[in-house]
Amino acid sequence: MTRPGDSPLRIGMLGVGTVGSALATLMQDRPELRLVKALVRDVAKPRKIAHPEAVLTTDPDEVLAEADVLVEVMGGTSLAVDVTRRALDAGLPVVTANKAALAERWDVYLPAMREGRVYFESSVMAGTPSIEPVAGILRGSSPLELHAVLNGTCSYILQQLEGGTSYAHALAEAQRLGYAEADPTLDVGGFDAAHKLTILARLAVTPDLAWEDVKRATHGIDRLTPGLVHEAMEDGGRVQLVGSITPREGAWHVTVRPVYLPAGHPLAAGESAALLYRGVGGEVLITGPGAGGVETASAVLGDLLALASGRPGPTPLSRPVVPPANAAIEELGEVDVA
User: Fold this and answer.
1) What is the per-residue pLDDT across 207-241, written as a single tens digit (0 to 9) for each?
2) Which of its termini does the chain have fewer beta carbons within 10 Å around, N or C?
3) Where are the beta strands (DSSP E) in 87-215?
4) DSSP 140
5) Long-range contact pairs involving 75-78 (C-beta distance under 8 Å, separation at least 24)
């Protein structure tokens, strides 16, 4: 990307909600970045950004016309993807936090990914690095299996069930605190975690993985009870919603479901985000905050700084990884909610 002199990178943004507002605040201390236009539905709604009268617009054309890079923190798989496609077709780089769009419409992004023009660290585990390790250094440690806790809302609800709270009351409290949406299906149904796991699986083992295949292998926490959770606690363990990528019968299986984790298991500590990678080079555990406006915005900012320094985005796999034969794979106990 060519910019005259030392002029700042001009940022066009889709969405100024929790993440977008946090990002705008973080960029105020970064003179090399400048927010020039941001797409919103209502320019009259108060926003925590500087000079809203000059920055906010309801016209995607204005955003694309003034930007050196498009930042997409709007979410969804329709308008956000349509505008992003236009940006990519015009040769602009894109930074996105949109895990649903990446999981369900990967083909839109793939040609530009191959050119290093798509950055998406914030789409999985927010401010906790996962994309860069899986798409980079960990490729040298041929994968044996991957297990991850990817949804903080589910982790919160499960902690409440551990205390004896009913599922309905735990969900209501999560909604009151803003952890869960009014329609919580994406979270408690396991689909948010499945979106994130699909992205990781495509980068780690199987580039042509179909979203519908992962969706069919996804089971959430909405049928759990305190009794089921306490069964695990009696042995010192706990229940977590875990996404797994494992080799079985010569193929990679990608699943999301509630499982029993025994005491001392690396994913049993209760973090909102955790990734356990086992490869020929050993075991790697990555944990940290997996959600939140500032946490996600910090990852978006990291991608912008990488872009500004000339670093390309993550490289997609060029071919599938052959599943290991006869590897000793951990069997996690699935919770029977039938």
Assistant:
1) 999 999 999 999 999 988 888 888 878 878 899 99
2) C
3) 94-96, 118-119, 143-149
4) G
5) 75/15, 75/100, 75/101, 76/100, 76/101, 77/101, 77/104, 77/105
For residue 313, is it within any domain? Answer: no
Q: Which residues contact 174 (CB under 8 A, 6 or more apart)?
A: 153, 156, 157, 160, 180, 184
298 in a structural domain: no
> In terms of pTM, does the model score above 0.90?
yes
Query: How many domains is the chain built from?
Result: 2
- Give the strand order in the sheet containing 56-57: 56-57, 33-39, 9-14, 69-72, 94-96, 118-119
Q: How far apart are CA 241 and CA 219, in angstroms?
A: 9
Integer distance in angstroms from the first to the last C-alpha of the chain? 54
Q: Write out pLDDT tens, residues 154-182.
A: 999 999 999 999 999 999 998 888 788 88
Q: Give the end of a domain, one of 76, 99, 119.
A: 119
Active centre residues (catalytic): 196
How far apart, in whole angstroms, are the C-alpha atoms of residue 301 and residue 29? 11
Give the residue-averaged pLDDT of 42-48.
90
**Domain span at 224:** 131-290+321-334
Q: Which tokens in the block code for residue 319?
A: 């071919």
